[in-house]
Amino acid sequence: MLFEEFSLLEEKKSKGGLDKWFKEKWVDISKTNADGSHPPCGREDADKGGYPKCRKVRVAAKMSKKEKKNSVARKRRAESGKGGSNRKPNYSK
User: Fold this and answer.
1) CB neighbours of 29 closer than 8 A, spacing ≥ 6?
2) Residue 26 forms beta bridges with which residues?
3) d(Cα 51, Cα 43) in Å, to the nearest integer?
4) Contact at 8 Å (CB) between 26 and 54?
5) What are 32-80's pLDDT values in tens digits?
6) 82 neighbors 90 (Cβ within 8 angstroms)
7) Phi and psi for 54 in degrees, rounded to 5?
8) Tens digit of pLDDT for each residue in 5-41?
9) How far is CA 9 from the centre of its chain?
10) What are phi and psi of 66, to 5 degrees?
11) 65 forms bridges with which residues in the sheet?
């Protein structure tokens, strides 16, 4: 009986948190596809280009074009302050 209660408790715990975060769809709001949608988050070649500005699909859908542009610009400004080839990703709002 105790084992069954423990397994039910474990099932309830795994429904949120990090498990949920990994299952959600993330998109790069700094880029757009030809149809106006955003590509999945990530980069093919980590040595080239800027870092992606990732947001959940639900959050990106609620943002206006101006909000997206300002968010990407804020990230790019923060990255450029780090200097040259020793760039690191910036997790600005």
Assistant:
1) 38, 53, 54, 55, 60, 63, 68, 71, 72
2) 56
3) 8
4) yes
5) 999 999 999 988 877 777 789 999 999 999 999 999 999 999 988 888 7
6) yes
7) -95, 140
8) 555 555 555 567 888 888 899 999 999 999 999 999 9
9) 30
10) -65, -40
11) none
User: Judging by beta carbons within 10 Å of its beta carbon (0-12, 13-18, 19+), is residue 52 exposed, middle or buried?
Assistant: buried
Q: At a CB cut-off of 8 Å and minimum separation 6, what does 27 contact?
A: 37, 38, 39, 40, 41, 54, 55, 56, 57, 60
Residue type, 1: M
End-to-end CA distance of the chain: 47
pTM comes to 0.67
What is d(CA 74, CA 67) in angstroms, rounded to the nearest whole number? 11
Q: Provide the sign of the torsion angle of the four alpha carbons 27, 28, 30, 35, taken in this order.
A: negative
Residues making up the chain, counted from first to last: 93
Q: Which of 55, 67, 64 is nearest to 29 (CA)?
A: 55
